[in-house]
Amino acid sequence: MRRHGILALGLLSLLSATRTARADDSSDVDKVQTGDSTSHAIDRTWLYLDDAKLAAPWTPIGMSNVTYTSVGSSPTRVYSPYNSFGANTALPGAMTSVGGEVGIASRVSVIALGQVGFGGEGPSPSAGAIAGVRFQLLPDSRRHAHLVASAGYLREAWAGPVFDDATGTWLPGQPHGDDGAWVQAAFSGDIDRLRLGTTVHAEHVFSPGRDAVDVMVQAGATYRVVGMLRAGVEYIGQDLEETFADAAEGGARHFIGPTASIQLLQDRLTMVAGPSIGLSQFSPSFVGRFGLSYGF
Fold it and tell me: Which of 143, 180, 193, 284 is most buried as measured by Cβ atoms within 10 A of its Cβ?
């Protein structure tokens, strides 16, 4: 009888340890211990998608990325106002983005990012910026599902170019971009080691001849391969409002590619990178991006 009791106690201990390990691997991925306090981890493992998580109140997150788009591609905005270090306009050539997010309440944060493009076919250098407010819509108790809505202001890095239907070519861009507004909804969910996400983005640029609304959809999946390393794939569909009719941007664009991310320093530092290839006529033939974020 005593032996049976010891065996039962051992099985209970093993079950408890297994549950704890699974919680550490999935449930607690969005938290990090800092001394005696607990704050949200800097879990920015998407390359283009919005991570659908906010900075903890009064906790700043620094973000930066570098994107290269193959020269000779039709210009396309790869515009994710918040992702792993996003808010990019993927002009032909190189572009860098630097900025940050700060939580101002348990469910509200603000972001601001500046970007500079150089090289390629447009005006060089060219500068733009975005700013916005983000709102967490699901309660903290939903630890495996995240839904964030955001909206704000944008300043294009450069104006145009505009597609000329008469000649079938792009008219040259101008060194100073136009102002606009954007709204966005982002969802992500974790199923054990698998993370799924989608982002729907809409924007309007206040300039004659532009589309009434530009629409972009992003979707992706990443898998925690081991420890701090994730691998996945992301898809971008931009200017989808032009799928069945040409307009200011000349048509819809689609591209897809693999991604890899790694989290270090108790999840305070995240690095993510990957190449993408175009899937349609007006898509860039190649886009490569590297980004990082750090929680202070």
Answer: 284
Identify whether the C-beta of residue 140 lies closer than 8 Å to the C-beta of residue 94: no
CA distance 273 to 288: 8
CATH number of the domain where residue 188 is located? 2.40.160.40
Q: Is the pLDDT of residue 4 over 80?
A: no
Q: Give the tokens for residue 64.
A: 């930066």
- On the 0-12 / 13-18 / 19+ scale of CB atoms within 10 A, 145 is middle
CA distance 292 to 271: 4
Pairing mode of beta strands 163-164, 169-170: antiparallel
Q: pLDDT band for position 150 (50/70/90)?
A: very high
Enter the tokens of residue 47.
Answer: 């390359």
Give the phi and the psi of residue 18 in degrees, each rounded to 5.
Answer: -65, -45
How far is the CA of 262 from the CAs of 36, 44, 69, 73, 116, in angstroms? 25, 10, 23, 30, 26
Q: Is residue 3 part of a domain?
A: no
Which of 234, 28, 230, 50 has the alpha carbon at shortest distance from 150?
50
Token digits for 203?
A: 């924007």
Residues sharing a CB contact under 8 Å with residue 11, sequence separation 6 or more, in sequence order: none
In this structure, is residue 20 part of a structural domain? no
CA 81 to chain centroid, in Å, comes to 7
Partnered with residue 109 across adjacent β-strands are: 103, 134
Q: What is the mean pLDDT of the chain?
A: 75
Tell me whether residue 17 is in a domain: no
The range of the structural domain enclosing residue 205 comes to 32-295
Length of the chain (residues): 296
